[in-house]
């Protein structure tokens, strides 16, 4: 519950910061940052965001695979040594918001290297 409240407050603060100054908060990295761009008008966006249930599924699948790699049990990638200290991934609302803005561009390739700063 506390995490949800923090996420909501963070989203509101980010939105008000953007509206208040009229500038994109990621413009300090590059004016071409994915977060600063409006959605591509030719992109047919059917849905935005990831629901809580899907977030949990994504994290579980990702962390299950990371645990397999960490234990040295991943063989399809040619075999990797066990990890010494692979931490569990957690959802990051800011990163998800930036990823959503990038997805809304409908350019299915990496964004600029400066765009990967936050």
Automatic annotation (TrEMBL):
<dbReference type="Pfam" id="PF00188">
    <property type="entry name" value="CAP"/>
</dbReference>
<feature type="signal peptide">
    <location>
        <begin position="1"/>
        <end position="21"/>
    </location>
</feature>
<protein>
    <submittedName>
        <fullName>U10-Eretoxin-Ek1ai_1</fullName>
    </submittedName>
</protein>
<dbReference type="InterPro" id="IPR002413">
    <property type="entry name" value="V5_allergen-like"/>
</dbReference>
<dbReference type="InterPro" id="IPR014044">
    <property type="entry name" value="CAP_dom"/>
</dbReference>
<dbReference type="InterPro" id="IPR035940">
    <property type="entry name" value="CAP_sf"/>
</dbReference>
<keyword id="KW-0732">Signal</keyword>
<feature type="domain" description="SCP">
    <location>
        <begin position="59"/>
        <end position="111"/>
    </location>
</feature>
């Amino acid at each position: 519950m506390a995490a949800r409240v923090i996420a909501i407050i963070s989203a509101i603060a980010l939105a008000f910061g953007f509206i208040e100054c009229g500038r994109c908060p990621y413009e300090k990295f590059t004016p071409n940052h994915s977060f600063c761009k409006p959605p591509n008008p030719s992109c047919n966006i059917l849905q935005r965001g990831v629901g809580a249930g899907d977030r949990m599924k994504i994290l579980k699948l990702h962390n299950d695979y990371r645990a397999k790699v960490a234990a040295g049990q991943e063989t399809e990638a040619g075999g990797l040594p066990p990890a010494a200290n692979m931490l569990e991934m957690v959802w990051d609302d800011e990163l998800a918001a930036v990823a959503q803005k990038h997805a809304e561009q409908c350019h299915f390739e990496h964004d600029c290297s400066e765009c990967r700063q936050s």
